């Protein structure tokens, strides 16, 4: 059965692949599962029909037969459980890969989102200049420890996994901040993730949506 995901009709990041449908697209591409995309506007996202799928009125969602999911990591996990390629077979290695999925979203992503949100909506505030270095240092704290753990390995724990997929998408949110460049092994890790053919297919697909919306 071909699943259907939702994505922004017109992504605010202008096709940079930072919207969270990118994670789901990438996971589906990694496992070779074709998918359909239903594009939603900001207003449609808040309508009852979409909120029945996503209680918080957001994207992405995932529908497959009578299964409806929301939360990008839960969707990636579902895809990884259903298909080979994103989680190791060995039970302990699988548990560690899942741990990295949680680490990406609950330990590394929050300070990165806080920084991004502050830059987006707090820039005009009188205290922004004082708050910015505090937020940047919170990100550095996580990046430094992640960098230490990664060392010179290609991926976080053995082969590429759903943990790396989520971590790379989280780190991509720092593009343009200059922070990632302070950790050359993390920059190289990000580049390795982005060089994967499945990443490129997913990226191109979401960019094509933005380009079509802008030229159409
Ligand atoms: N924790 C959720 C976050 C979902 C989320 O923040 N989606 C954003 C796009 S990346 C969204 O729909 N924003 C529009 C809104 O909240 O109105 C996930 O990982 O799926």
Write a structural description.
With 216 residues, this protein is of the alpha+beta class. The chain is 59% helix and 8% strand. The chain has helices spanning 21-31, 42-45, 48-53, 72-82, 91-121, 128-150, 162-172, 184-194, 197-215; strands spanning 4-8, 36-40, 61-64, 67-70. It has a 4-stranded mixed beta sheet with strand order 2-1-3-4. β1 (4-8), α1 (21-31) and β2 (36-40) form a beta-alpha-beta unit. The model has no long low-confidence stretch (mean pLDDT 97). Glutathione (GSH) binds at residues 19-20, 45, 57-60, 71-73.
Characteristic terms for this protein:
single chain, 216 residues, alpha+beta, four-stranded mixed sheet, 9 helices, 4 strands, 8% strand, globular, binds glutathione
Distance between the termini: 31 Å
Structural class: alpha+beta
Mean pLDDT rating = 97
Largest sheet: 4 strands, mixed
- Residue runs with pLDDT of under 50 for 5 or more positions: none
- The portion of residues assigned to helices is 55-70%
Which percent band covers the strand fraction? Answer: 5-15%
DSSP strand tally: 4
Gyration radius (Cα, Å) is 17 Å
Strand order of the largest sheet: 2-1-3-4
Distinct small-molecule ligands in the complex: glutathione
Instruction: Tell the overall outline.
Output: globular
Counting H and I runs of at least 4 residues, what is the number of helices? 9
Written as H for each helix and E for each strand, in order along the chain, the element string is EHEHHEEHHHHHH
């Amino acid at each position: 059965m071909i699943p259907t995901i939702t994505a922004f009709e017109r992504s605010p990041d202008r096709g940079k692949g930072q919207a969270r449908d990118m994670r789901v697209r990438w996971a589906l591409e990694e496992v070779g599962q074709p998918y359909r995309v239903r594009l939603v506007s900001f207003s449609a996202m808040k309508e009852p029909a979409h909120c029945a799928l996503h209680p918080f009125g957001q994207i992405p969602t995932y529908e497959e037969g009578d299964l409806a999911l929301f939360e990008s990591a839960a969707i990636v996990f579902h895809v990884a459980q259903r298909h080979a390629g994103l989680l190791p077979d060995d039970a302990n290695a699988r548990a560690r890969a899942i741990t990295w999925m949680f680490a990406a979203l609950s330990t590394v992503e929050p300070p990165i989102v806080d920084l991004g949100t502050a830059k987006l909506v707090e820039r005009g505030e009188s205290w922004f200049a004082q708050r910015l270095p505090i937020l940047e240092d919170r990100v550095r704290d996580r990046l430094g420890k992640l960098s230490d753990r990664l060392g010179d390995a290609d991926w976080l724990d053995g082969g590429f996994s759903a943990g790396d997929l989520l971590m790379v998408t989280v780190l991509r949110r720092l593009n343009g901040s200059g922070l990632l460049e302070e950790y050359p092994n993390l920059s190289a890790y990000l580049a390795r993730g982005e060089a994967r053919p499945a990443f490129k297919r997913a990226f191109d697909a979401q960019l094509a949506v933005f380009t079509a919306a802008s030229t159409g």
